[in-house]
User: Which sequence fits this backbone?
């Protein structure tokens, strides 16, 4: 299947019966996609306005809604989530809302359901270089709106196809991450549309939906988060599927080497990890193996990197815009042109005037045989101290709740072999799983909430 620029997706060169999306038991053709886009554009043009909110829980509605709004010459504002309060707040800031969520909210005049394909014929002229608005994750602060041009998103899709296109084996694209954030939007929707690969519209983040989708797909591509990739082998019998995934992508945070190596059992070529942000898009990639050097990152072809005095990574790219962007990640350049990520600069905290590296504490905790996952968070009440949230390994000794202080003391002694007393967490929480959000990220707020009560 020939690759198409996003601005020329509707130019009529793609076959009418080409499969675009898998909606439950049936497949939507390109003709249906193009005609639905035309219906969306007609609705929006009839209503007027230049900036619309696109609130679709369904990836099909999101895809036709985005291209319909772009065809109508509108900017596309994408909400960070579909909570009623969020949608009601953002609806007051736009000219209209295109949705499959709650058309009654915020006033019926402003809310419009995504239409079905009608009699309107698709316009084959290239799309304008419209604006698409995303939101950052807000994992370390307030989320903020980021504006991207269609041409910037297209440039990333082109780069992804150049690097990874040969890994696909003809199956559909199956995602466990939400489509309204830039990673899901690019990998689950825009890239498949440009490359002519069918996309599964349902987000398959829970085990039952994942099993159902895998059973129906031949050699799918998986778009996942590191948190879910770490848990999936425990929740789903991946050996059960005759045809496994052809390629697996991970983004949102680094995948632990042990998890990456474990996944080679089902994906021999390994998990392709993407390092980036909403502001920059994709910056670099890697595929980890038993080779320690495989943990190093290789920049995308259109990305130029520099390193500031404090070690922060500085990113330049046409997809970033005219000015470079400083990342709050420390990095070290390597002689072969790759680089090593050293951790978040904002994860070096001061406790009683001592600098403490939270990633180092977490790595040491996870080196203990009783620990599966660990995260350390600074707490401000009643004074500045550290809290540790621990997911215990399956083969750890079983402690009754009243014995958790003893368990915490075991881990304190373990850390005391390498760290000064001030760096050792004072508060401890033992949980079944860490509070990852739908993007596979841990936020300061969700972590701090664990310590409202605890050891």
Assistant:
């Amino acid at each position: 299947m020939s690759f198409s620029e996003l601005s020329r997706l509707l130019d009529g060169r793609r076959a009418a019966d080409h499969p675009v999306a898998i909606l439950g038991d049936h497949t939507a053709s390109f003709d249906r996609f193009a005609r639905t886009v035309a219906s969306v554009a007609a609705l929006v043009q009839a209503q007027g306005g230049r900036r619309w909110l696109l609130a679709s829980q369904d990836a099909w509605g999101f895809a036709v809604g985005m291209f319909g709004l772009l065809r109508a010459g509108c900017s596309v504002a994408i909400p960070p989530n579909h909570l009623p309060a969020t949608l009601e707040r953002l609806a007051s800031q736009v000219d209209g809302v295109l949705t499959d969520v709650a058309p009654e909210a915020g006033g019926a005049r402003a809310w419009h359901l995504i239409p079905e394909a009608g009699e309107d014929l698709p316009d084959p002229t290239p799309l304008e270089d419209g604006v698409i608005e995303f939101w950052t994750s807000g994992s370390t602060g307030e989320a903020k709106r980021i504006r991207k041009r269609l041409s910037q998103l297209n440039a990333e899709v082109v780069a992804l196809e150049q690097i990874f296109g040969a890994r696909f084996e003809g199956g559909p694209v199956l995602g466990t991450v939400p489509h309204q954030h830039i990673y899901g939007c690019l990998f689950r929707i825009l890239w498949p549309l440009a490359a002519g690969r069918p996309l599964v519209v349902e987000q398959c983040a829970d085990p039952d939906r994942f099993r159902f989708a895998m059973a129906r797909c031949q050699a799918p591509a998986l778009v996942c988060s590191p948190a879910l990739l770490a848990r999936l082998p425990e929740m789903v019998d991946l050996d059960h599927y005759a045809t496994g995934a052809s390629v697996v992508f991970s983004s949102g945070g680094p995948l632990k080497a042990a998890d990456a190596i474990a996944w080679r059992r089902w994906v021999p070529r390994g998990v392709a990890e993407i390092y980036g942000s909403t502001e920059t898009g994709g910056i670099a990639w890697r595929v980890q193996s038993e080779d320690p050097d495989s943990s190093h990152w290789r920049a995308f072809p259109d990305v130029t990197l520099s390193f500031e005095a404090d070690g922060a990574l500085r990113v330049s790219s046409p997809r970033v815009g005219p000015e470079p962007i400083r990342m709050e990640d420390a990095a070290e350049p390597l002689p072969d042109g790759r680089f090593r990520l050293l951790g978040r600069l904002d994860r070096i905290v001061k406790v009683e005037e001592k600098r403490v590296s939270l990633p180092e504490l977490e790595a040491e905790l996870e080196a203990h045989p009783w620990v599966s996952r660990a995260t350390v968070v600074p707490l401000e009440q009643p004074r500045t101290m550290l809290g540790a949230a621990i997911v215990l390994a399956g083969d750890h000794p079983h402690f009754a709740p009243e014995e958790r202080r003893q368990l915490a003391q075991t881990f304190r002694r373990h850390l005391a072999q390498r760290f000064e007393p001030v760096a050792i967490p004072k508060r401890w929480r033992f949980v079944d799983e860490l509070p990852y959000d739908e993007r596979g990220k841990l936020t300061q707020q969700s972590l701090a909430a664990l310590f409202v009560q605890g050891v």
The chain has a mean pLDDT of 89. The chain has eleven helices and 24 strands.
